[in-house]
Write a structure and sequence with these properties.
With 382 residues, the protein is mostly helical. Helices cover 67% and strands 1% of the residues. It has a single domain, classed as MetI-like fold, CATH 1.10.3720. A two-stranded antiparallel ribbon has the order 1-2. Helix 3 packs across helix 4 and helix 5 crosses helix 9.
Amino acid sequence: MASGAQRRIKSISYAKYGYLFILPFFLVYFFFQLWPLINTFILSFKDFTGENSVGLANYKALFKGVGTEPMNFSDGSTFKIADRTARVVHENFLSAFKNTVILWIGNFIPQIALSLSLAVWFTDAQLKIPGKGFFKIVMYLPNIITAASVAVLFLQLCGEAENVPGSLKYLPNIITAVSVAALFMRFISNSQLSAVNTLLLNAGNDAVSFEASAVWSRGIVMFIQTWLWFGNTMIMLMSGIQGINPSLFEAASIDGATSGQVFRKITFPLLSPIMAYTLVTSMIGGLQMFDIPYLYHKDPNHTSENLKTVAVYIYEYFYDQTDPKLGFAGTASVLLFLVTLILGCIAFYLTRDKDAIAKKKQRKKIAKQNKRESKQFGGFTI
């Protein structure tokens, strides 16, 4: 017979220690994700200073372009949004949102098309492509190349120039996007000292104002975003294709299916979960696009209206040195979060696995039917 001490040892549960291991994650998530989100919601109901509550005044200004009557607070301050100011804020927000959507769609479509084409090409066992590993590494380089390396490239190719912002001297401490934006600023910019305009002038042509043109400026940002991220997307799609059962491709080959038929009937349908993930992550990143549009302009204190995204719009209102409007920045952040959440849910719904859902419904239907029959026969299942 087991003693009392042995029984106590056997009854010890170690499940509680699992919570201790995941506690750091929840702490980090709360302080760096959840609390800033909650604080942003609170800030969206505050005035420009972020001190006094103004209700839905900021939302009315951004949504409808409607001002408010003067509000007097106990600290002696007064808050008012003039109709003209509200209209400007509303129009700027709509313009920023339009720019964001255009820039995202313009880089997502070629990015996914190029990534999917290369992924299918590199994973095709029938194609004996030499140096596949080398090409994969080269195409993934934009995601891993360091800012310091690109900065050295600047110095070697372009040398010093008077119109380079002083902040670029700190490139080794900043992410790759800064380096890429700086690279294009040096080679393609309004300045006649840029590489492209220098070639045009030497050929007897006029310099091109790239940043002033909506087509050129947006096209350049789209190209940069595509170049930066298509390698990462290609690797994910290749992993998905390699996870497909090879017997499906062998059976299709034996049946005489063409490459196009194999792609339409096997590869693309089975890639739908990864395609959904790519769509959602790209959409989230696209709606929050900030670094490239903000950095790719001549004047560090002013962003071209053609490149002003919602994230840049929020930044300018929040960090305005002369007249910061924290309430507007918080409201725009909340709207961006809600739009991202809604579009993400729609994307997941449209790309859901319909076959799995149908099977789940069928299992529930069978379980209910068995339960009903069990009740009819006195609790015994036939």
